[in-house]
Design brief:
This protein has one helix and 23 strands. With 297 residues, the protein is mainly β. The mean pLDDT is 88. This is VWDE protein.
C-alpha cells in the first residue's frame, strides 16, 4: 500500500440545480503520474453499522452525492472514505481516509433543556445543516416547522396545564448561505409553566414537524424531539376562608371579622397584590364577616 497521503476529506452541503447534494472534498497531493481516487459514500443505518450508498472513481479532488430522500434521507449521518491509487498500479492503494460524520437535517441547540419554574426564558436555536431549496413555483425558500409539546409520564393527563410554554407555535427556516454547519436558523423562547403545585420534576418533549407541501426530502422527515426537564420549585400558600380565618405564608393564623376591603398580601419585589372584600354575614346574632370578593394584580 502507499502511505497515508493526508487527503483529509470533508463533507459540506450544497445546492446543485436546486437540489440538495453533499460534497466530499479532499486535498490532492502533487504526484507523477497523477493519482486517481475512489470515494465511497456511506450512512449510519443503525448505531455502529454502516450502509454503502455510492462509489465513485474520479480524477477530481471531490465527489457529490444527492440527498434524494430514498437511499439518503434527512436525519442520516453521512461519511465519505477516500483512497488514492495510480492508473498504472491500481493494486497499490493509499490507506483509506474517512471524513467526520456529517449530520444532515434539523438540529436543536442545546440538544436538551433543563429549566425551572422560575419564569425565566431560555433560547432554543433550531437550525438546518442542509440548504433550503426553493420549490420553483413561488419565491418562498423556507421550511415551516409546526411546534408542539407533550408531557411525559403517567400523571401528566391528570395534572392540568402543560409543563412548557413556547414563544411561537410555528417557526420558518429561511434560505441563507451555509456557514459553520448552519444553512438556516430560527430562535425560539421556552419557559417553564409555574403551576403552584408541588408535582416534582417533570419531563416534556418538544417536537418540530415540517408542514406544507414540499419535495420528498422534507415530506418524509420528522426531526428528533428535544427533551425538556422542568425542575419543580417550592411555592408558598396563604389562605383566607369562611368567616375569614387567615393563614399567612409562614403559617401564622388569625381571624378578621371586620367588614370592608382589605389588602390580603403584597409582594415587595414585583407588581403583585391581592385585595379581599368582606361583607356582614352574621346578622344580629354575631359580628361575623365573610369573603365575598377578591381582586388580584
Amino acid at each position: 500500500k502507499l502511505t497515508s497521503l493526508a487527503l483529509q476529506p470533508v463533507i459540506t452541503p450544497e445546492l446543485v440545480q436546486g437540489r440538495v447534494h453533499l460534497k466530499c472534498a479532499f486535498s490532492r497531493p502533487s504526484s507523477k503520474p497523477p493519482l486517481q481516487y475512489v470515494v465511497v459514500w456511506s450512512r449510519l443505518s443503525t448505531p455502529g453499522k454502516r450502509e454503502h450508498i455510492q462509489r465513485d472513481t474520479t480524477l477530481q479532488s471531490f465527489s457529490y452525492v444527492e440527498m434524494n430522500g430514498v437511499n439518503l434521507r434527512l436525519g442520516d449521518t453521512v461519511f465519505c472514505t477516500v483512497t488514492a491509487f495510480t492508473r498504472d498500479t491500481p493494486e497499490q492503494q493509499s490507506l483509506p481516509e474517512e471524513s467526520k460524520g456529517f449530520y444532515a437535517g434539523i438540529k436543536f441547540l442545546p440538544e436538551s433543556l433543563q429549566i425551572a419554574e422560575d419564569g425565566k426564558e431560555h433560547v432554543l436555536t433550531i437550525l438546518s445543516t442542509v440548504p433550503i431549496a426553493c420549490p420553483g413555483h413561488d419565491d418562498s425558500c423556507k421550511i415551516t416547522l409546526q411546534l408542539s409539546t407533550e408531557d411525559l409520564g403517567k400523571k401528566s393527563q391528570l395534572l392540568g396545564p402543560p409543563n412548557v410554554a413556547l414563544s411561537a407555535c410555528q417557526v420558518d427556516l429561511l434560505q441563507a448561505p451555509c456557514s459553520e454547519s448552519s444553512c438556516a436558523a430560527a430562535a425560539l423562547r421556552v419557559t417553564a409553566v409555574t403551576d403552584f403545585a408541588q408535582d416534582g420534576n417533570r419531563v416534556s418533549r418538544l417536537r418540530a414537524e415540517p408542514v406544507g407541501w414540499r419535495d420528498l426530502l422534507w415530506r418524509a422527515y420528522t426531526p428528533k424531539d428535544v427533551k425538556v426537564t422542568v425542575r419543580d420549585l417550592p411555592t408558598g400558600n396563604c389562605y383566607s376562608f369562611t368567616d375569614p380565618h387567615i393563614i399567612t405564608f409562614d403559617g401564622w393564623r388569625y381571624d378578621n371579622y371586620k367588614i370592608g376591603t382589605f389588602l390580603l398580601c403584597r409582594s415587595v419585589s414585583r407588581a403583585f397584590e391581592v385585595h379581599v372584600r368582606q361583607w356582614d354575614c352574621g346578622g344580629h346574632r354575631s359580628a361575623t364577616a365573610c369573603n365575598c370578593g377578591v381582586a388580584a394584580r
